[in-house]
Amino acid sequence: MNLSAVSNRVSPSWGLAPRSPMCPMMSHKQRRHERQLTVPPEMEIEGVETAARRVAPVFSGPRLVALRELRGMTQASVANAAGITASALSQAERGQTALSAPNIVKVAQFFEVTPDTFAERREPDLEMKPQFRHLRRTSVREQRKAERFVMATARVASILRDRVEFPAPFMFTRRVRPEQSIEDVAEEVELAAELTRSELGLPRSTPIGSHLLGQLEAGGVTVVRDSETDRDIDAYSAVVGQLPVIVLDGGEGSVWDRDNFNLAHELGHLVMHRGIHHTPGTRTVEAQAHRFASAFLAPAQPLLDRLPRRLDWGRYLELKREWGMSMAALVRRAKDLDVINKALYTRAMKQQSAYGWRKVEPGSDDRPLPVPRNIYHAMSQAGISESYLAKQAHLPADVIQRIVGKQKPSLIY
Ligand SMILES: [Zn+2]
User: Quick one: angle between helices 182-199 and 256-272, nearest 10?
Assistant: First the structure.
C-alpha cells in the first residue's frame, strides 16, 4: 500500500495531513507497524461527507463546546471561521438543533478533526478542577481552555495506558482543610510532604535535586509541558477520571529551579486538596501548596542543620544546587523553620531585589528545563504516530503535538 497516495487522498477532505507521522527513534519494525496503523481502512474509502452523514443523528453539542473551548474561541469566531451561521452553531452547542451534515463537514475541517469527533460520547469526570495560582488573574476563557487541555491530555494518556504498561496512577492523598491558614496547619503540611516522599518511594531526607519530573512520571503522575500555557499561569494540576495531570508552562523564560518548585507545588494540591470541595487559588490553599513544595524538596530535618543563620549567599547557592530549590525559596524555608528571624528575612528579600535575583538568580541557567517523557515513550513503544493518536482521541493534530511536546535527544532506544 502506498502511504503517500493514501495520505493525499484522505488529507484534503479530512484536513488532517500527518504533520509528524513518525517518532524519530522508531525502529524499522515499529515504522512498519506505524504504516499499518496510520490510516484505518474505512477512512480510505469513506469520504468526509459520508462520515458526517453517519454522525449527524448522534451529533453531540457538548463535544462541539469542548473543542471550541479547547481552542479558547468564542461561538462567533468559530462560526465565522468555519463558514456557518452563529445561530446554527449556538443551537447545536445547546443541543436544540443538531448540525446538518454539510455543517459538520465545515466545522470538522475548521478544527482539523474527523466528523466522528462530534458523535455522542461520555467524557471522564473532572474530579479536581485545575488549580490555578492566580485564579482572579486567569480569565474564564483561559480557565476553560486549560480544563479542556487537561481532559484532552488525560484522554491521550488513557488511550496509551490501554496499550502500554504505565505506572499505576498516583492516588495518594493526605488531606488538609483548605480554609485553614498555613500557621495553623504547618505541621500537617510538613507531614503530608514527608508521607508523599515515602509514597513515591523517595528517601525521607536526601535531595531529589532537579529530577522531580522523572520521579513524578515514575510515580504515576501524567506531566506535560504545554507551549500554549502562559508563563503567568506557571503550572496547574487537575484530576480527570482518576488520572492526576500536571501541566507546566511553555518554558519560555522558565528556569529549572522554578519548574522544580512548581511541580512540587502542584503535587501538594494533588495530595492535600484532591477530593475536597474548595475554591482553587485562594491564599490559604496556595500557601499550603507552597509550604508543601518546600517541605517536600527540602525536608526540615536535614535542612535545619544546613541552613546558614546569616545571609551567606554562597552557602545558599550550594544548597540550591544540592536540593533543587531556588535561593529565594531556601531563604523562605529558613524563615519558616525559624532559622532566621523576620527582620533578616526582610533584609534578604531587599538584597535579592537589589542584585536583580528576582528575575534570574545565580545557578538558574546552568541546568536544562525538565522534559516530560512518558507520553512520547509510550507512543514510541506502541508504535503509534501523532496522527493516529489524534484520530483515536478525536483531537486536532496540533493539540496532540502540544501534549507530546518537544523531546530532548535520547540514547535510549
Ligand atoms: Zn497552586
Answer: 100
pLDDT tens for each residue of 351-370: 999 999 998 999 998 898 88
Distance CA 113, CA 105 (A): 10
Look up residue 28 and give its amino acid: H
**CA dist., res. 275 & res. 16, Å (int):** 39
Joined together, the cell numbers standing for residue 185 give 496547619
| Residue where the block lists cell 461520555 | 122
Q: pLDDT tens digits for 285-322?
A: 999 999 999 999 999 999 999 999 999 999 999 999 99
Torsion of CA 105, 107, 111, 116, to 10 degrees: -50
Q: Which alpha helices (H) appear in 164-281, and where do they start and end?
A: 182-199, 212-218, 256-272
What is the grid cell recorded at 327?
A: 535561593
State the pLDDT confidence band at 20, using cuts at 50, 70 and 90.
Answer: very low
Distance 282 CA to ligand 1 centre (A): 9
Q: Compute the C-alpha angle 151/157/159, nearest 5°.
A: 105
How many Å lie between the centroid of ligand 1 and the Cα of residue 25?
36
Give residue 80 CA to ligand 1 midpoint distance, Å. Answer: 36
Instruction: Report the length, in residues, of the chain.
Output: 413
Give me the pLDDT at residue 410, please.
67
Between 407 and 389, the more confident residue is 389
Amino acid at 173: T
Cell triple for residue 212?
522531580
Ligand 1 center to 102 CA (angstroms): 44
101 Cβ neighbours under 8 A, 6+ residues apart:
49, 52, 53, 55, 56
Q: Among all chains, which residue has been given the C-alpha cell 540550591?
A: 320
> Sign of dihedral through CA atoms 223, 228, 232, 238?
negative
What is the radius of gyration, based on Cα positions, of the chain? 24
Distance CA 227, CA 225 (A): 6
Give the distance (Å) from ligand 1 centre to CA of residue 238: 11
Tens-digit pLDDT profile for residues 106-129: 999 999 999 999 998 888 888 888
CA 128 – ligand 1 centroid, Å: 13
End-to-end CA distance of the chain: 28
- What letters, b where the CB count within 10 A reaches 16 and e where it falls short, cover 191-213? ebbbebbeebebeeeebbbbebb
pLDDT class for 2, splitting at 50, 70, 90? very low
Residue 37 CA to residue 219 CA, distance in Å, equals 30
